Amino acid sequence: MSIKIPVKDMNGREVEQVELPADVFEAPINVGLMHQYYVMQMANARLGTHSTKRRSEVARTKMKWYRQKGTGRARHGNRAAPIFVGGGIAHGPHPRKYTKKMPKKMRRAALRSALSAKAAEDGIVLVDRLEVKSPKTRDMVDLLRNLVGDSSALVLLASADENIELSIRNLPDAYYLRASYLNVRDLLKFDKVIVPLDALQLITGWLGKQPRSE
């Protein structure tokens, strides 16, 4: 059984209804799988370029600070020790990779799960076409208000569209994304997901279960 939802035009009026494929938008909602995908995505976004200097790497003399005995003070070596200001850092971070991997089948299952969660919450908004004549933020504000009201929105695009991208990039509660770059973080971050029909076709062709070849 498939979910049937209305398709709107850019003025927010219903023009037809479309059935969403059950294998993509009615998949089992697996919270643990979505969390694993999210952790992988956030870890892979880390640069891992953080670096601190140990006591052997700081630019300070390695000479003993003062003599061992006779001063009444504690025994110390050089001033590059971590206990002194300007000294090295003990156990500080160093460049490393945070990369995590996840099998393709699990990644796609997590995306189907996130899309199904959105569909169950009426978070999917279909639009017959999405276009603006010129890159104007004002026009995009009016368009989004017609489609989703005051809700935050993720706009999926089937292909690059400079006018839409330039019009939406300054809006704090909206974001655009190529449908081929769909990910769990952006899906769950916004209240509504605006999907033009050409982007919907791309998503279902990508995430739909393909028949096995004999």
The main sheet orders its strands as 2-1-3-6-4-5
Q: Which CATH top level class of the largest domain fits?
A: Alpha Beta
Give the overall pLDDT as a whole number: 91
Amount of beta strand: 5-15%
Largest sheet: 6 strands, mixed
> In the residues, how many domains can be counted?
2
- Fraction of residues in helix: 25-40%
Number of helices: 7
CATH architecture designation of the largest domain: 3-Layer(aba) Sandwich
Strand tally is: 6
What's the CATH H-level homologous superfamily of the largest domain?
Answer: Ribosomal protein L4/L1
**Which class best fits the helix and strand makeup?**
alpha/beta
Give the topology string: H per helix, E per strand. Answer: EEHHHEHEHEHEH
* Unreliable runs: none
